[in-house]
Design brief:
The structure holds two protein chains of two kinds. By secondary structure, chain A is mainly alpha-helical. Chain A is built from twelve helices and two strands, in the order ααααββαααααααα. Helices cover 74% and strands 3% of the residues of chain A. The chains are: A mainly alpha, B mainly alpha. The interface between A and B is large, with 39 and 39 residues.
Chain lengths: 288, 340
């Protein structure tokens, strides 16, 4: 039972980490390698707003999310837009920006001492005889809410439909008057906010460290590749696969191998089924 | 008379002397010969003379060795990315394999560096190529992602299995003894690597490499096995990386997990972008610029990674051709505005 419950929690955690990356890639075909950096940045911003500026926790959260969204949009608007369509440059540039943010944070702020965000609700409860703290339940709730919210957003609102349009067929969307670059900015902002939300619900479980940035990036990439880049259903399914695989490894082999599982999953997927579980044929051509 | 840029464009033409030096007329006059040889000699002799010039600054002499190690990686990266079309973000993996292999040979079998370095270089190259073999069908972004995973995975596996000294690494590796051997071995390797790869690219093999990069379907259609050529490219790049790693382990007398670190993946890329992709020499130039900067910033810890990440971003966005291509253009062509 413990394996099932923690497996579900771990899987939802992975989904949260991957949603932003998947959204940005799905809409603008931009592999945002600064995803992990934005994740850590939000945590640190929230910590700053909470402890240095002295805002109320909810206000600090909203402030941090807004700032991250703006930073993500600015990153696209000022830098990445100039290298659209050159995949290698996109990877290198976004990775470099991410590195600059992470290592800059490590140098400037995140060193010595521990930086922690308080959990939303203290304490824990019993669930089928397994003790689970409330924060982990909030993570699950946030994950489910986000998945549902995003689904509603993309299928019901005009902006969401525009994003979906660009994702499905950029040229056709352009002829219908949807501005591809503006949608890419929106998707970057949204993706950054999603990374931020993940950070804010997950960081209270531990402390804010720079390494989390790399970890999240690897996990997000792993989930998206295994699930098929740009496919949300695939990403969710893949996070359950990897999530449970990880929990099983931790309980039956050793904690050290947790990350290895994700990496092996990527390598195996890319080699055996290059377009991922839910990848489409079109992408297969690009990859192999 | 304000003329807007819309009415004119820049025209670039090869200089006469450049055209002459392309053919047999290169030997017609000393001017042509100087024009052709000067940049090459400046590069070769400059690199050879560097340790002598810097002999008054012992600290910077050590930096030369580090520059050369990065230069080997950068040349490998440049070759693989701009001539074979595989963007490998896993430079750290090659260095780590070379380093561990040299250290193990030295510690377990007591072999001297004269033996360990060549073995680690070539056997390491084969080892890396074999590991990369299953991923070679992948292209572009996907290969980049997988290659980024390799050094991380290797580090984790060593940590988890607690083999090869685990997190402590392997201590007490023999040093080169004479520092001049170390410097000139590395400088010589860089020169040889650049020379050999540049020759290779103008041979038939180079043409196939180009083809694999530009249109692999066409190469396939010509009944050429592209995986073989990709593997060959990876072998060259990883051999250079392993050589760097093997030397590194003998310089620091230590092999450890930090040799799989991010530095070895990101600096060569930055150097290639700054120096100018596709020129091979440009990536050496980039290392000569970036590595000293990073040494000067050593006191600031991880800020240096942030600094060259920013330099990298700035170059890739605003000056994506790089210094070497820019310099070559100015040297070989003149520009003028022409009315449209």
């Amino acid at each position: 039972m413990e394996i099932v419950i923690y497996g579900i929690i771990n899987s939802i955690t992975l989904t949260l980490m991957a949603l932003g990356f998947s959204l940005v890639y799905g809409v603008s075909r931009l592999p945002n390698f600064a995803h992990g950096a934005l994740y850590v940045l939000t945590g640190y911003l929230a910590w700053l707003l909470l402890n240095r500026v002295g805002l109320y926790y909810p206000l600090a959260i909203i402030g941090a999310l807004a700032l991250t969204g703006i930073i993500g949009a600015a990153m696209y608007y000022f830098v990445l837009v100039r290298i659209r369509g050159m995949p290698i440059s996109e990877i290198i540039a976004s990775y470099a920006i991410g590195l600059a943010i992470l290592e800059g944070l490590r140098w400037g702020g995140l060193k010595g001492g521990t930086f922690t965000l308080p959990p939303f609700i203290e304490g824990s409860t019993q669930l089928f005889g397994v003790s689970v703290d409330y924060q982990r339940l909030i993570v699950v709730a946030a994950g489910l809410l986000l998945i549902g919210g995003l689904w509603l957003f993309v299928s019901k609102t005009k902006l969401g439909l525009a994003l979906k349009g660009i994702a499905q067929d950029e040229r056709a969307a352009l002829t219908l008057g949807i501005d591809s670059d503006r949608m890419a900015v929106v998707s970057m902002a949204l993706g950054s906010v999603l990374a931020g939300i993940a950070a804010l619900v997950l960081f209270p479980l531990g402390s804010i460290v720079v390494e989390a940035g790399y970890q999240v990036l690897i996990m997000a990439v792993a989930v998206c590749i295994v699930g098929g880049l740009g496919s949300w259903n695939g990403a969710i399914l893949a996070s359950f696969l990897i999530g449970f695989a990880q929990i099983l490894t931790v309980s039956f082999i050793a904690t050290h191998f947790q990350v290895v599982v994700a990496l092996v999953a990527i390598v195996v997927t890319l080699i055996s089924r290059p377009s991922g579980l839910f990848g489409r044929q079109k992408e297969l051509e690009e990859r192999v | 008379m304000a003329e807007t840029t819309q009415d004119r464009r820049k025209e670039r033409l090869d200089r006469g002397i450049k055209v002459r030096t392309d053919s047999v007329y290169a030997i017609s006059h000393w001017q042509e010969m100087t024009y052709m040889l000067a940049p090459r000699l400046v590069f070769i002799l400059g690199l050879l003379a560097l340790p002598l010039i810097l002999s008054f600054f012992p600290y910077w002499q050590r930096v030369i060795s580090i520059v050369c190690i990065y230069a080997l990686l950068a040349v490998g990266f440049d070759f693989l990315a701009n001539h074979v079309g595989l963007v490998s973000l896993g430079g750290g993996f090659y260095v780590g394999v070379g380093a561990y292999m040299a250290a193990l040979l030295n510690l377990k079998f007591g072999l001297p560096p004269v033996v360990t370095v060549p073995i680690a270089t070539f056997a390491g190259g084969v080892f890396c190529t074999l590991l990369f073999l299953p991923c070679l069908p992948l292209r572009g972004v996907y290969f980049a992602i997988v290659s980024l995973m390799f050094p991380l995975l290797a580090g984790r596996v060593i940590e988890a299995l607690d083999i090869f000294g685990g997190t402590d690494g392997l201590l007490g590796v023999e040093s080169f003894g004479n520092p001049w051997v170390e410097r000139y071995l590395l400088i010589g390797s860089v020169l040889v690597a650049v020379f050999v790869l540049r020759r290779l690219l103008i041979e038939d093999v180079g043409l196939v490499f180009r083809g694999v990069k530009d249109n692999d379907q066409a190469v396939k259609a010509s009944a050429i096995n592209i995986t073989v050529y990709k593997a060959l490219g990876v072998y060259f790049a990883s051999t250079l990386g392993c050589l760097g790693g093997a030397c590194l382990t003998h310089i620091y007398m230590w092999a450890g997990l930090s040799q799989f670190a991010l530095d070895y993946s990101i600096i060569p890329i930055a150097a290639t972008v700054v120096g100018g992709g596709g020129t091979l020499i440009g990536s050496v130039l980039g290392c000569l610029i970036l590595v000293p900067i990073s040494e000067m910033l050593r006191d600031f810890g991880t800020l240096r990674i942030a600094v060259y990440a920013l330099i990298l971003t700035a170059f890739i966005v605003y000056k994506s051709e790089g210094l070497m291509n820019y310099g070559a253009r100015k040297y070989e062509q003149f520009e003028r505005w022409v009315r449209i």
